[in-house]
């Protein structure tokens, strides 16, 4: 009897892994186009993840998204699943009904796999975002998003900050920002003073050869440079710092680590000579 149970367990696992492997090719183009069109109409901009396709394949066979993520080896902060057994029109309608919920949960990536006559959908906020580029590239995306705010001005908690000149990129401030973002993520702490060294932003800037005055903004948990800047604008002090006309240069970066409670940390380091 025990031998038969072992055989059945082995067969079930084999079937599950086969289904996961088959899902790596991703959904048919028509399904992907329909889903992404539905996401876009309700203001969602989700990145398709091949890893989440594998989670969706597991979810089509298992009871919960938690079980599916464990089988597929996917680390996440938030995840929701939807199993839809019907034609494409029914799938589009079902996703549309959940779209606001997905948006409010700030989910950013999706995967899909066959389920009966329809599809299983997984939407998630991953522990480490699937579409982030290198620290320098994302740092410059952070700069571009910051300069877009400075170009328009902003209401910072009831105080209007007028438009300010664009900031130039500074490699030294980038180096300081990257090193600190890495420490924030890997050592799992927050704050402008490093609890292990006692150093603050000015100390970190001087260590990489920047001799001017500096200011720093930190954001924890947002999954893109644009979302990080949008979050900082909603905080009056960070918003004012970002729009301070005295700053002339900036370096920015991020670091992501599964050691962190937030998953990802962003650093803006402003400077003037």
TrEMBL record:
Signal sequence interval, chain numbering: 1-25
Keywords: Signal
InterPro entries: CAP_dom, CAP_sf
Keyword Zinc tagged: no
Superkingdom, natural source: Bacteria
Pfam (any one): CAP
Domain SCP: 144-270
Keyword Signal: yes
CDD domains membership: CAP_bacterial
Protein name as annotated: SCP domain-containing protein
């Amino acid at each position: 009897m025990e031998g038969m149970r072992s055989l059945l367990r082995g067969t079930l696992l084999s079937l599950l892994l086969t289904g996961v492997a088959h899902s790596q090719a991703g959904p048919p183009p028509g399904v992907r186009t329909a889903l992404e069109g539905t996401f876009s109409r309700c203001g969602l901009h989700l990145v398709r993840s091949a890893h989440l396709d594998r989670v969706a394949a597991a979810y089509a066979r298992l009871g919960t998204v938690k079980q599916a993520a464990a089988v597929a080896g996917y680390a996440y902060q938030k995840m929701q699943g939807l199993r839809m057994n019907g034609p494409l029109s029914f799938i589009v309608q079902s996703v549309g009904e959940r779209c606001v919920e997905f948006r409010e949960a700030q989910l950013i990536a999706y995967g899909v796999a066959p389920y009966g006559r329809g599809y299983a959908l997984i939407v998630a906020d991953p522990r480490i975002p699937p579409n982030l580029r290198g620290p320098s590239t994302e740092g410059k995306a952070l700069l571009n998003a910051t300069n877009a705010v400075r170009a328009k001005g902003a209401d910072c908690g009831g105080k209007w900050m007028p438009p300010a000149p664009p900031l130039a990129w500074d490699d030294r401030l980038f180096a300081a920002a990257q090193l600190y973002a890495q420490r924030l993520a890997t050592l799992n702490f927050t704050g402008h003073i490093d609890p292990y060294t006692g150093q603050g932003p000015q100390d970190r800037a001087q260590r990489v050869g920047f001799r001017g005055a500096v200011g720093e903004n930190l954001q924890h948990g947002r999954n893109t440079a644009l979302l990080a800047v949008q979050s900082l604008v909603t905080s009056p002090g960070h918003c004012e710092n970002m729009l301070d006309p005295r700053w002339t240069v900036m370096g920015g970066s991020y670091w992501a680590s599964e050691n962190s409670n937030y998953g990802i940390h962003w650093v803006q380091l402003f400077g003037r000579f």
